[in-house]
C-alpha cells in the first residue's frame, strides 16, 4: 500500500509517523476497569516497551486480581479518582460499563490525562458531545475503541472503495448475529447487575451500543457522509430471562441522496455471523471476511437439480421448458472473490489501536479524525437506539453535529 494513499484513506495512521523518534520514550498508563475486555487491552499494553501500566482501578476485586497477573507491579485502587490523583500518570484507559464512561472521562480530562475510552463513548448523545468538547478544550489525546480504523483489511478496503474500484456505493448492509444469552456467571445475587450490566437499561443500551457502534462507523467511513434520518424496531423475542435490553434489533439509516445503511443484530441465531456488506454497482466488499467480489465474475451455471430436470424434459418432450441459467436466482454462489490483503485476516486492529494510543500519549499529539470518527459512531448508535425505543423515524439533531470536513458537518 502506497504511503500517500494510505495517509489519505487513514490519516489517523500519522500517529506512527514519529515512531522512531519515540523509541526511547516511555509513558505511564492507568487502567480503569480491567474486566474481560479490559484485560484484553491490558495484555497489549503490558507487551509494549513504550509504556508502563502503573495503576489499576476497579470496584470488583476479582477483576483486579486477574489484572495483576498481567501487570503485577501496578498499584490498585477501588476508587478511580484516587488513580487520577497520581500526577505521574500520563494517560488512562477506560473499559467500564457504558453508564460510567462519561464521568470517568471528564474527570480524567480535568486531571490532565490523555484518554482512551472504550466504545460506545457515553450513555446519551448530550454526554457524548460534552466529552468531545472537553477533549477539544483540554487538548488532551482522545482515542475510542473503534479498532477497525486500524485494521489493515479495512484500511485497504476503504482505499479501494474511495478509488471507485467497486463503482457507486449505493447501500451498506451490516449485521452481527450470535446465539448466546450474553450472560456471565454471578457468584452471588447482589452482583447480578454489576457483572451483567449489559442486560439492564440503567447501564446499557444493548446491541446498539455494544455491537452496532463498530459497524455503523464502517458504513459512514465508506460513504463519507452522515445519514439524515433513522428508523428501527427491537424486541426481546428469545432470551426472556429478566433482561431489559433487546435481543433482536433492526435499523435503517437514510442518507440525503436516497442511499441506505441497514443494521440488524439477532442473538438467537449465529449462522450468518457478522459482516458489513458494501454494495457497489461494480462490486461488493466484505471487509470482515477480508474479501471483495466483482459483479462481472461470469454467469453461474444452472443448479444441478435444474440441469437434471432439463435433461429429463429434453428426453421426454425434446425441448427445454426451463430457461437455463437465467432461471437461477441472481446470487454469486460461484464467485470466490479475492482477499483484500491477499490472504485471510489474521488480526482485527486492536493491537495497532492500542499501540497508536501509546504513541500519541508519548508525543502528546492527537491524530486527525480519530476522536471525530469515534464521536459520530457513538452518536449514530445512540440515535438508532432512541428510534427503536420511540418507534418513529428520527432526524440526526443539528445541535449534535461537530466540525468534521470529511462528513461535511459544522458544529452548532
Query: Which CATH top level class of the largest domain fits?
Result: Alpha Beta
**Through-space gap between termini:** 38 Å
What is the alpha-carbon Rg in Å?
24 Å
CATH superfamily of the largest domain: Dihydrodipicolinate Reductase, domain 2
Number of helical segments with 4 or more residues: 12
**What is the third-level CATH name, the topology of the largest domain?**
Dihydrodipicolinate Reductase, domain 2
- The total of beta strands comes to 15
Q: What structural class do helix, strand and pairing data support?
A: alpha/beta
* Low-pLDDT stretches: 319-327
Element-by-element helix/strand order: HEHEHEHEHEHEHEHHEEEEEEHEHHE
Strand content is: 15-25%
CATH architecture of the largest domain: 2-Layer Sandwich
Describe the main β-sheet briefly. 9 strands, mixed
Q: Indicate the percent of residues in helices.
A: 25-40%
- Compute the average pLDDT: 91
- What is the overall silhouette? globular
Amino acid at each position: 500500500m502506497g504511503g500517500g494513499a494510505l495517509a489519505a484513506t487513514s490519516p489517523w495512521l500519522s500517529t506512527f509517523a514519529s515512531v522512531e523518534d519515540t523509541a526511547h520514550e516511555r509513558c505511564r498508563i492507568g487502567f480503569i476497569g480491567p474486566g474481560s475486555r479490559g484485560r484484553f487491552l491490558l495484555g497489549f499494553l503490558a507487551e509494549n516497551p513504550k509504556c508502563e501500566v502503573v495503576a489499576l482501578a476497579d470496584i470488583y476485586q476479582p477483576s483486579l486480581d486477574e489484572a495483576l497477573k498481567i501487570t503485577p507491579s501496578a498499584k490498585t485502587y477501588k476508587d478511580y479518582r484516587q488513580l487520577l490523583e497520581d500526577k505521574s500518570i500520563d494517560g488512562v484507559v477506560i473499559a467500564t460499563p457504558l453508564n460510567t464512561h462519561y464521568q470517568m472521562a471528564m474527570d480524567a480530562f480535568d486531571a490532565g490525562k490523555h484518554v482512551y475510552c472504550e466504545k460506545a463513548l457515553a450513555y446519551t448523545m448530550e454526554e457524548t458531545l460534552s466529552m468531545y468538547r472537553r477533549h477539544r478544550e483540554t487538548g488532551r489525546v482522545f482515542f475510542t475503541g473503534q479498532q477497525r480504523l486500524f485494521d489493515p483489511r479495512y484500511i485497504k478496503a476503504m482505499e479501494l472503495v474511495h478509488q471507485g474500484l467497486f463503482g457507486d456505493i449505493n447501500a451498506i448492509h451490516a449485521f452481527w448475529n450470535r446465539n448466546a444469552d450474553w450472560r456471565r456467571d454471578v457468584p452471588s445475587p447482589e452482583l447480578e447487575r454489576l457483572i451483567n450490566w449489559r442486560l439492564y437499561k440503567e447501564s446499557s443500551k444493548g446491541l446498539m451500543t455494544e455491537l452496532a457502534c463498530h459497524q455503523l462507523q464502517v458504513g459512514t467511513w465508506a460513504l463519507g457522509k452522515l445519514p439524515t434520518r433513522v428508523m428501527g424496531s427491537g424486541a426481546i423475542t428469545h432470551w426472556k430471562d429478566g433482561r431489559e435490553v433487546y435481543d433482536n434489533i433492526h435499523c435503517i439509516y437514510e442518507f440525503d441522496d436516497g442511499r441506505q445503511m441497514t443494521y440488524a443484530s439477532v442473538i438467537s441465531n449465529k449462522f450468518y455471523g457478522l459482516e458489513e456488506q458494501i454494495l457497489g454497482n461494480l462490486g461488493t466488499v466484505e471487509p470482515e471476511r477480508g474479501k471483495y467480489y466483482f459483479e462481472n465474475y461470469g454467469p453461474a451455471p444452472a443448479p444441478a437439480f435444474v440441469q437434471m430436470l432439463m435433461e429429463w424434459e429434453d428426453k421426454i418432450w425434446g425441448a427445454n421448458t426451463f430457461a437455463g441459467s437465467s432461471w437461477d436466482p441472481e446470487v454469486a454462489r460461484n464467485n470466490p472473490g479475492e482477499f483484500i490483503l491477499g490472504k485471510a485476516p489474521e488480526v482485527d486492529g486492536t493491537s495497532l489501536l492500542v499501540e497508536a494510543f501509546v504513541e500519541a500519549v508519548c508525543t502528546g499529539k492527537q491524530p486527525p479524525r480519530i476522536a471525530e470518527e469515534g464521536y459520530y459512531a457513538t452518536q449514530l448508535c445512540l440515535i438508532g437506539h432512541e428510534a427503536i425505543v420511540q418507534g418513529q423515524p428520527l432526524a440526526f439533531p443539528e445541535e449534535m453535529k461537530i466540525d468534521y470536513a470529511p462528513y461535511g458537518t459544522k458544529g452548532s
